[in-house]
Amino acid sequence: MTMAMLLSTPPLIPLPTLALKLKTSLITPISSTRLLCKFNDFDMTSQLEILKPERKKPDKGVNGIFWILLLNLGIYVADHVFQIRVVRALYLYHNRPTWYQFVTATFCHFNWNHLSSNLFFLKLVEEEKGNFKLWLSYILTGAGANLVSWLILPRNVVSVGASAVLFGLFAISVLVKMSWDWRKILEELILG
């Protein structure tokens, strides 16, 4: 550079110095909308994305949880508001059960507190594997729990509700997210 070029540039205003010093930086284009900025010898961030396009949130339409909630509410309203007698046939009567009552009893509830607590916790269950697997898990855990209650409880009991389904869905979600590293499982079993 010549002295004339140095004099023609505007004077530099000193900025406060930062405690972190960046030795070198390299900006490379990734695509037309993104730049990737790499900093060498920077111990906090190795890569920084600039001008990242905003991701649109997926449109959450009607999903499996919605239909399960709607079915539970519909059966409750039919049973307790309109008092339709046919709904009582969906309860699981331990003294004379029919095959469909093992499934349908999971959609019936005795009172509003029972329904609202089950629906509140059901809403907290995340839908991770799709609608079909959610429905299948709901029905299988409910029917399995009702079968066990029918085998264990006395014959003068009536079973309704989705509490056992909630425990089953919780167990399934834990098992799905669990790491199946046998060394870690053995370590947990030995050490507690």
UniProtKB/TrEMBL annotation:
Main location: membrane
Gene Ontology CC: membrane
Keywords tagged on the record: Membrane, Transmembrane, Transmembrane helix
Recorded topology in the membrane: Multi-pass membrane protein
Coiled coil: none
Residues of the Peptidase S54 rhomboid domain: 98-185
Domain of life (superkingdom): Eukaryota
Cross-referenced Gene3D superfamilies: Rhomboid-like
SUPFAM superfamilies linked: Rhomboid-like (SSF144091)
Segments traversing the membrane: 61-78, 98-122, 134-152, 158-176
A GO MF label: serine-type endopeptidase activity
Localisation: Membrane
Name the record gives this protein: Peptidase S54 rhomboid domain-containing protein
Organism of origin: Solanum lycopersicum
Source lineage: Eukaryota, Viridiplantae, Streptophyta, Embryophyta, Tracheophyta
